[in-house]
Structures are given as C-alpha cells and as structure tokens.
Amino acid sequence: MRKTFLLLFMLVVSATMTARSMRSLWISMPPSVIPYLDKSKRLEMLDLIDIKAIAEVSNALGEPCRIDTLTGSFLSVQLSDVSSLQMKLLPTSERDTILCLVQSYAAPAVDSRISFYSLDWKELPVPQPDLSLLIVRPDTMTAEEFTACKKLLDPLLVSFSLSAERNELTATLSPTLLSKEERDRIEPIIMQRKYKWNGLTFN
Asked: N or C, which terminus of the chain has less Cβ within 10 Å?
C-alpha cells in the first residue's frame, strides 16, 4: 500500500513538473522564435487560460494570436491568419527531454519548418524526416510520367503536424500554383506519412 502511494505521488509530481515545463518554455522562448509576440503577451495568454477564458491577444502586428491547446507536453498556437506554431516535448534515447517546434505558414499552400531545441533553447542538430517517403511511384505509372509529376512538385512544400497525444509527426505535401489537371496528375504519387519518434529522430 505504501509503495503504491509513493508511486502515485511520484507520477503526480512528474506530470506537474512536465506541465510547468511547457508553460515555462513558452515564457522563456527567445524573441527570435516569434519576434512579434513578446513575453508579456505570452504571459497574458497563460493568465487567460488560468481563468478559463479564450487565450487570445493581439500581436505587435495587430493580428490575433490564440493558444488552442496546452497540455503537459504539447502547445499549439495560431499566430495569425496564415501562421501557426506547435511545441512538443519528446523523450530521447539518453533519458533526457528535448523540444520539437513546427512553424507553419500558409500563403496559401502550407509550408512548415521543423526544429529541435534543448530545454534552455539551444538549437539541436536532429536529423530531419525523410521526405522522399512522401512521393511514391505507382506500379502502373511509367518512369517518364513519374519524373514529369515530380517536377510539378517543385518547389517541394510540406505541411507538418505534431500529435498532441502521441510522439508522432504527420507530413503532407502542399502543391502550389497547379491547375486541376496537374493536381489530378500528381495525386497518385502523393502519400501522407506518419513518422514516429524513436528517441533520436522521426522515422
């Protein structure tokens, strides 16, 4: 009974520390990550969450910023009509924790950037997901047609989305400036991919 109580106590303490860590990471974020949303505004958003109000403020550009989700290990923020940010705490193979950021911009096709940081906001050289897995040649498609379809995807824009519940990353190609006929041509070669975190990278 005593061991069970101690185990439950440790789990509660661990969960509380993790929740505080995500909040503190949001507060201690370097200005370079979101230059138009300063620390006072980020604190105000947390205060609004604490009183169970909509966590929305105006950024320095006069646009609304809103925290959509905040958990012990995940944060999702709509920064403007065209930009968003996701933050996710991930365990490493060395029993440490690092921070993954996905910054997305829609203009209008969504283009995302993924980066990794230590908990004191030092950028880490974590390998990027293998994007070649998003383009697959069907057995019924000729090599010439496959090559032509791949050229239609240049430049290669990718939308990333972190899972709030699982250590997973979903990647989807974002074709831009294509006609309906061209979109129909590339549809057979485009694959949505879920990458799982293995403690070192998403694969």
From this structure: N
pLDDT by residue (tens digit) across 56-70? 999 999 999 999 999
Phi then psi for residue 29, to 5 deg, are -55, 130
Which residue from 156, 102, 154, 114 is spatially nearest to 134, judged by alpha carbons? Answer: 156
Q: Which of 94, 73, 120 is nearest to 200 (CA)?
A: 94
What pLDDT digit, counting tens, does each position of 98-108 carry? 999 999 999 88
Give the contacts of 89 (CB within 8 A, at least 6 positions apart).
18, 21, 22, 72, 73, 74, 97, 98, 99, 100
Task: Count Cα neighbours of 50 within 13 Å in the Cβ-side half-sphere.
Answer: 9
State yes or no: cis peptide before 30, omega within 30 of 0: no
Q: Does the predicted TM-score (pTM) go above 0.85?
A: yes
Q: Where are the alpha helices (DSSP H) in 55-157?
A: 143-152
